[in-house]
Amino acid sequence: MTSGMTDQTGANAADVGICIIGAGPVGATLACRLAREGIRVAVVDRAALPPMEHPDFDGRAYAIAAGSKNLLEAAGVWERLPHVPCAIEDILVTDGRPGEPASPLSLEFTREDATQPFGWMAEARALRVALNATLHASPNVTLLAPAEVSVVRNEAGVTVTAKDGRVVRARLLVAADGRGSRTRSQAGIAVTKLPYGQSGIVCAISHEFPHDNGALEHFLPGGPFAQLPMTGTAEYPHLSAVVWSEKDAMARRLAELPQREFARELQRRMGSRLGEVTPVGRRWVYPLSAQYAQRYTATRLILAGDAAHGIHPIAGQGLNLGFRDVIALSELLIEAHRRGEDPGSPALLARYQARCRPTNMLMFVATDMLDRLFSNDNPVLRLARDMGIATVQRFPRLRKAFVKHAMGV
């Protein structure tokens, strides 16, 4: 194991301040951020980390908002990204139907609406490589991965025991183990789920013309279609990510089309703004739903990221919402560490829930309403949303307010 990472194979137990269940982007970033402040952290995951670093381009990418970029820089992760992320400097929002010209009433966010890029597109594999490298470089991180563990929480603390006998004792447990969080279920925290009857198709495309760091959000009756600019490669100099929502059955049929027919369907939704398009890499299909936990805390336990909430990808805010949890939680834990306070105290848990859950619920409601408003072909709703788009376009202050919130700064 790389120098700096504590290997528990030869030790009976490790005492840390925080134990994080889940080494995905949210859990790993939290660990890196806390470790950099001198807080001893354990990270537990059922999968080994090296296999997550698949070397082949697979078409998946993350939209990283400005606030999230600041977090990744503070955690020492951003500087380790092996590929330069692509800045998003323009966003065109349109409404229409497949194969038809978009409505003339559109909305465009440009460089004049912000003092920095709206966000950055980072390959999923690149972020995973950077997170793994940062975890391995930190002397304050103990890693149990792969590991199947049992957890005991009480007022005195947390004990995490792996099947192979490794033990971690902590003051606070953070569940960052995804939408199907077993940690959350074991704590008896109820979840409200909202299926959409939609699936998201995720892939990458090569296109004829440069994207000029511009993104497209095109609302269609089956669901939103997003083209997001990516950093090109020697083989594909003009490259973008696609997140494409459709009704479940249609999404499955589209994803299984031969290459030429799939490219034709992409073109029908994108139009000719980027010229001829060619699918690149794998196609991924994910059922879309939303969910929220009834509470974010239990005895010495905090939920973060998808374990606490899941939203529709219509605004590209899913991971950024998780990173906002990390920003809030890391600030609270770093302050508690500096003051010598208990990181698992009821007071700290209450402050975290009060800070995060109301704003997360607002985003949940907003994305749910957006999907219901735009993912249909009702002529009355089409007129209403087109007028809404045109209204925002006319008022620079309103555009800038939208931008500031989405950027998370």
From TrEMBL:
PROSITE patterns registered for this protein in UniProt: UBIH
Keywords: FAD, Flavoprotein, Monooxygenase, Oxidoreductase
Pathway as given in its UniProt record: Cofactor biosynthesis; ubiquinone biosynthesis
Pfam families: FAD_binding_3
Organism superkingdom: Bacteria
Residue span(s) of domain FAD-binding: 16-361
InterPro entries: FAD-bd, FAD/NAD-bd_sf, Ubi_Hdrlase_CS, UbiH/COQ6, UbiH/COQ6_monooxygenase
Cofactors demanded by this protein: FAD
The UniProt record lists the keyword Oxidoreductase: yes
Cross-referenced PANTHER family: MONOOXYGENASE NMA2164, UBIQUINONE BIOSYNTHESIS MONOOXYGENASE COQ6, MITOCHONDRIAL
Family, as annotated: Belongs to the UbiH/COQ6 family.
Name recorded for this polypeptide: NAD(P)-binding protein
Origin species: Acetobacter fallax
